[in-house]
Design a protein that fits this description.
globular, mainly alpha
Length: about 350
């Protein structure tokens, strides 16, 4: 989710595209907010309502497709290295943090669920460790599926097939999903849901003109495009397109486009630099935020007796973003960097 994932170094100097960090910042904000809201609803701190359900559907309609698209932007350049080096790189920046933080989060959950029976907690922990290899837990499915799709793209590249060919193949795979043709393996079915967004990202990423286009669009136009596209997304969610497999990409597309336009607009104002910071540390936020917001929710409710949903939402979202950033900043200058990447 950070530049370490999406934009790997190559022999050619590449200008950092700040709008990508801002788009990732907007996306990771929605990831954290979505998990905060669902956690509060699951623990009866926040009552479900039409507004809650609508906001939940609105967020989940496009925020993960957005991340797959952004992850695809620099993938072609990453595959310019030898295939073995590419695989090692993906293992280092995707599989390694997936394993480390899946084990940490599953261990903490097992201790919580098995607090009344240590043997039950231990058995649950062993079962969780085994399932991590083939059944990605909680939010970590993103890293698992991103690795699978990235590897598939690298194989296409090695066979000298174009990014457009991969887009065609991903579209065909999605049509098979619509036709309810199962792949027989759960993770591959999930991959078929999201490969199309990464494939579009690889096609866009190969065009320097498209990547730099946002800089030439007037701010007013970006604002209009953003608001208009978010309105289209809102209508799509209201009509339930995000729950119909054949229409899901049509619901996600305006949300993705709106967020990219908004990122291109906000990057022009120094006041919103904090959003770029969120994007720069999006991997650390993604890996750590669930533990942070769950711990804070328990502390606020059980220790301080606070059950006000507004306080939980604000405190949970801020803590879920900034505590991982603090950990990430500290870790990059110490051996704790191995919590996030093996490099």
């Amino acid at each position: 989710m950070t530049a370490q994932i999406d934009a790997q170094p190559s022999s050619k100097p590449v200008t950092r595209l700040l709008w990508v960090d801002y788009a990732k910042g907007l996306g990771i904000f929605l990831v954290v907010l979505g998990h905060v809201l669902r956690g509060l609803a699951d623990n009866a701190i926040l009552s479900t309502s039409f507004l809650f359900d609508y906001l939940d559907q609105w967020i989940y309609a496009f925020h993960m497709p957005l991340f797959f698209f952004l992850s695809g932007l620099f993938l072609y350049r990453s595959t310019s290295r030898p295939f073995k080096a590419f695989v090692i790189n993906r293992l280092t920046i995707l599989v390694y943090p997936y394993l480390v933080w899946s084990l940490i989060q599953e261990s903490l959950q097992s201790l919580t669920y098995g607090s009344g029976d240590s043997s039950a907690g231990f058995l649950l922990l062993l079962d969780s460790f085994w399932k991590i290899l083939y059944q990605p837990p909680d939010q970590f499915w993103f890293l698992y599926i991103l690795f699978v799709i990235s590897l598939a793209y690298a194989i296409f590249h090695r066979l000298r097939l174009s990014s457009f060919s991969f887009l065609v193949a991903s579209t065909a795979a999605y049509f098979l999903l619509i036709l309810e043709v199962s792949s027989g393996v759960g993770v591959f079915n999930i991959a078929r849901h999201f490969a199309i967004y990464l494939a579009v990202g690889t096609v866009v990423g190969q065009s320097s003109e498209l990547m730099l286009k946002l800089k030439s669009i007037k701010s007013l136009h970006l604002l209009v495009f953003s608001i208009g596209s978010y309105l289209i997304l809102s209508l799509a969610v209201f009509w339930g397109w995000n729950n119909q497999v054949e229409l899901i990409p049509l619901a996600a597309a305006p949300g993705m486009f709106a967020s990219i336009c908004l990122a291109g607009l906000l990057v022009r104002f120094d006041f919103y630099a904090f959003i770029g910071l969120w994007g720069h540390f999006s991997l650390e936020i993604f890996l750590v935020h669930v533990i942070v917001i769950a711990g804070l929710r328990i502390a606020l409710q059980s220790i301080f007796g606070i059950a006000n949903p507004f306080i939980h939402i604000v405190a949970g979202t801020l803590a879920g973003i900034y505590l991982p950033i603090m950990i990430g900043k500290y870790s990059r200058h110490t051996k704790l960097r191995y919590l996030f990447t093996y490099s």
